[in-house]
Design goal:
Radius of gyration: 20 Å
Helix content: 25-40%
Number of helices: 15
Number of strands: 9
Strand content: 15-25%
Shape: globular
Amino acid sequence: MKPVLTVLLLLALCPFAPAEKRLVLIDQDGSGPGGSNQMAMMVLLQSPDAEVLGITVVTGNAWRDEEVQHTLRMLELIGRTDVPVVPGAVFPLVRTQQGTRLATPLVGKVAWLGAWGEGPTDLNQQAGQTADFSRSHDPYFVPPLPEGVPHKLLLDQDAAHFLIGQVHAHPHQVTICALGPLTNIALALAIDPHFAELTRGIALMGGSLNPQTADPEFSTSPRHEFNFWFDPEAAHIVLRAHWPRIDVTTVDVSLKAPFTQQMLDEIAQSPSPAARYIAKYSQDRYYLWDEFAACAWLNPAIVSGERLLYMDVDLSHGPSYGDTLTWTAPFKPDTDLQQVHAQVDLDLARFNKMFVDLMKVAPAAR
């Protein structure tokens, strides 16, 4: 029998052969325990359709070293110590904590400062609380971890070189899932200008267009979003790189996906390690920012509305420093901007079910 006919016959006889897993690198500001950052990583770690090659950590919602410890411990508690964790950037490329604090009296306060002072941590606090620089601590101090100290060690490498190495080891096969400030990704691009072109694309949580909300953080500042704001120069570099595809989960869609008590109650019924972790440590009611970005990469069908736009970040160092800039094709500047798929709406019921189901399942066999 001819070789081609043999292959076709084997495919016909094995119609239910398992699909090859999709390769992904997670870049995350892994504050914890629990919460959106950790649960978003768990979406990809729990999925039978994804192979997580590693997690790189960047300062954002908390300082890097603290985030690394929370992430290592989460992996232990859910049974995924096979995944390497790699430390990345401690500070943004240009923006500084002190400079931002000094500018605040002139440009106004923001609701969330992340590692530089935190702010409200759930929807009940959002209406009347602003971030406070005095709530920050030393970048290299790691407070006691409620979930316990991890035994797993982080990989002795820096994030940028780890990302580059993994992409070169699997050319045109790896998606970057960037769910925090984009400092690590920008550094990888600076070291290897062809880094973006060798991936399958990037899925990121960032940017804001025109969210329809009464939430005071966004109703009066519709172009403000924390990840872009924290390191605007990094976001500018990443958005202009030549990725095969750029998918952006915006504030507009994230605000439509709250973490509800009903979802937590359903997850808590499962005996799986992931569900037990969430039941104990993810008690705040907030938006599922990063979780939706991860789920949308796994199943684009949950995205019910998107806009094709050219996107950049304001680098003017004025009141709108770090705000999202967008254009449609007829109006874009004559510079090397890239088109992005900006998500603005979702199938909420389908997303909620997908997220809850992933958190309830036992870890996939490795």
